[in-house]
Design brief:
2 copies of one chain form a homodimer.
Chain A lengths: L1 E5 L4 H12 L3 E6 L10 H4 L4 E5 L5 H8 L4 E4 L13 H22 L3 E7 L23 H20 L2 E7 L1 E3 L7 H11 L3 E4 L6 E2 L1 E3 H14 L4 E6 L5 E2 H12 L4 E4 L18 H6 L7 H14 L2 H5 L2
Parallel strand pairs in A: 1-2, 1-4, 2-3, 4-5, 5-6, 6-11, 7-10, 8-13
Antiparallel strand pairs in A: 9-12
Helix pairs in contact in A: 3-4, 4-5, 8-10
C-alpha cells in the first residue's frame, strides 16, 4: 500500500513509519514538527519508499495535495496533552476535531477510502464497567481531550456510512516505548535526573492505569487492519493487566537503583479530568487473534532505557 | 432567571422564548435568521423582558458580548438538516460542533455556569437496544448530524467537569407542533397541497419513529432543569409510543379528508444515514416526574392545523 501517516514524526507515528517501510510499503509522513521530531525519521529518510512533508493538518490545501495517490491514511496527528486541556480548550477542537474533519475531507477529495485512527481509552470517561469493553454503557466525557477524540470517532464513523469509507478506530491505553516524549515515565525520569533524592507525585499514587508497548501497539494495528472487515471497526488496544502509579515508580527506581523520598500531592486524581482507573477489556482484538508480547513492566523498562540513551529528548521537551 | 436562547427565532427556540417570558423570566434571543423567522418572535417583541439580537453563533465577539449578564444558556441554534448532511459535511462541523464550542467559551468568559442543550436520538445510531435508554451500549454514529451532536455533548460534559459548569443535555425524538418548519409532516402537507391525488414517500413507509409535541417538550426541559441536579444531566425526551410513517400519512390524509395514491421509493431507509427505528426509553425523565400530555397523533394534527393556518411558511421554506 501507499500509506499516508499524519503525525508521522511523532512517537507512535514515526515508529509506524519505520514498521510500514520494513514491511515494504510506500510511506508519506505528514507532520508540522510542533511536537514530532525530525530525528525520529532519520532511518526513514534513508529509505527510497519514504517521503516527508512538513506541514499542518489545519492547512487543508497542503493536506489535500500531499495525500494525492495514497490509498490508506493513518491519522495520528493530535494534541495529546490530556492534562492541560482546560488551559487551552481550543487546542483539542482545532488539532483533534477540526484536523480530523480536514483529513476526512482530503480523503474524500482524493477518493481514499481507508482510515486508521488513534483514539483513546479516555473516551470512556469514568465508566462504571471495568475492564471496559467497546460497547460499554454510553459514557459521559470528563476531559476535553476525550471529548475531542469522541468527536473524531463520530465523524469517521459517519463518513464511513455516508461516503462508503472503511475505518479502524483504536482506543489506546497509554503507549510506552522508544521515542516516548511525554507521560508519567518521561516526567518521573526527568525529575529523578534533576533530584534522585525526592519525587513529587500527582494524586495519591494509587491511580490504576494500563499501558501498552509501542511494538505491540503497531502489531495490533496492522493485524486489525488485515482481519477486522466491518465498515467501522472499533477496537480497544491495551494489555490484560493494569498497574498503580506506585508500581511504576517501583519499576523505575529499581531500574535506576535509587530510593527517592516520595511526596504525594494527594487526592485520587492526578489532575482535573484525570481518570483514577483506566483498564480496557481487549477481548475483541484477542478474539481476532492479536496478543501483546510485552508486559507493562517490560514496557516501562524499555521506555526508561531509551530515555537513558536519548537524553537530548529531555532537553528538547523541557 | 435571565435566559439566553441561541436559535431563539427557530421552531423550538421561539416557543421556548414565549414559554420563558410567560413564566416571568427575562429573555435574550440570539439568532442569525438563516432558518429562524422574525415572525415567530412577534409576541415576544411586545414584551418588556425580551431582547432580540440578530447575529451568528460563529461570530464569537458578538456572541460573547450578547451573553453578558445572562445566567442560563439554552443552546438550540444548530444545523438540523439530518437528511442532506453528506451534501455539505462542513455545515454540521461549523454550525453544530464549532458553534457549541463558541457558546461554551462565551459562557466561560462571562462566568455563566448553566447550559441546556438540544441533542438528538440520532446520536444512538442504529442501536440494537430499543427502546433506547441514555446508558445504552456506546453507539456507532451513522449520520454527520448525530456525530456533530455527539461532539457537542462531549464538549459540554467536559466543560462541566473542567470548569464547574452544570449541563442538561436533552436527546430529542423529532419535535412537532406550532412553528414546525421542516420534517415529514411539513413535507407531506406541502406535497399534498400541490397534488392531493398522489404522495411520494421516501423509504417503504415502515420506518418507525417517535415524536414529541413542542409544549410537552418545553414542559419537560423546564421540569428537568428544576429537578435534575447532577453536574451533567443527560435525558431522553420523547413519548412512550412510536408510529410508522404510514400511520402518520393516515393521520394527515384523514384530517385533510383526501385519499392520495401512495408511491414508495422503497428500501427500509428514507435516505443514507436514516435510522429505520427510533424509539427512546424515557424512564429517566418519567421517574423525575415529567410525562407528556399529548399523543403522537395529537401532535401531528396540531402541527397540521398550524400549517393550515400559516401557509406563508410553506412559501418561505420552498
Amino acid at each position: 500500500m501507499k500509506a499516508f501517516v499524519t503525525g508521522g514524526a511523532g512517537f507512535i507515528g514515526s515508529n509506524l513509519v519505520d514498521h510500514l517501510l520494513s514491511l515494504g510499503h510506500e510511506v508519506v509522513a505528514y507532520d508540522n514538527l510542533s511536537t514530532g521530531m525530525s530525528n525520529f525519521l532519520t532511518d526513514a529518510t534513508n529509505h527510497s519508499h519514504f517521503t516527508f512533508i512538513e506541514n499542518d493538518v489545519l492547512n487543508t490545501n497542503a493536506l489535500t495535495q500531499a495525500m494525492a495517490g495514497s490509498d490508506f491514511v493513518f491519522h495520528l496527528a493530535a494534541n495529546a496533552d490530556v492534562r492541560f486541556g482546560t488551559d487551552h480548550p481550543e487546542k483539542d477542537l482545532q488539532q483533534n476535531t477540526i484536523a480530523t474533519f480536514n483529513v476526512l475531507e482530503a480523503m474524500r477529495h482524493n477518493g481514499i477510502k481507508k482510515i486508521a485512527f488513534s483514539s483513546t481509552g479516555s473516551i470512556y470517561g469514568e465508566t462504571s464497567v471495568i475492564p471496559t469493553p467497546e460497547d460499554s454503557p454510553f459514557p459521559i466525557q470528563t476531559s476535553l481531550y476525550g471529548a475531542s477524540k469522541l468527536a473524531c470517532e463520530g465523524m469517521i464513523s459517519a463518513y464511513c456510512e455516508g461516503y462508503g469509507m472503511q475505518g479502524w478506530i483504536f482506543r489506546f491505553v497509554s503507549i510506552l516505548g522508544e521515542r516516548y516524549t511525554h507521560g508519567h515515565v518521561f516526567d518521573f525520569y526527568k525529575k529523578l535526573l534533576d533530584n534522585p533524592e525526592e519525587l513529587f507525585v500527582l494524586g495519591n499514587g494509587k491511580q490504576k492505569k494500563s499501558y501498552l508497548y509501542i511494538q505491540d501497539c503497531l502489531d495490533a494495528i496492522l493485524f486489525a487492519i488485515d482481519h477486522a472487515k466491518a465498515p467501522v471497526n472499533i477496537l480497544n488496544l491495551g494489555t490484560d493487566e493494569y498497574i498503580e502509579v506506585d508500581d511504576s515508580i517501583g519499576f523505575i527506581t529499581k531500574h535506576l537503583n535509587i530510593q527517592p523520598e516520595l511526596k504525594y500531592a494527594g487526592g485520587e486524581r492526578g489532575w482535573i479530568g484525570d481518570n483514577p482507573f483506566i483498564f480496557l477489556d481487549c477481548s475483541k482484538i484477542r478474539q481476532l487473534g492479536s496478543t501483546p508480547k510485552f508486559s507493562i513492566e517490560q514496557g516501562v523498562i524499555r521506555t526508561l532505557e531509551w530515555l537513558q540513551n536519548n537524553q537530548w529528548v529531555l532537553e528538547r521537551r523541557a
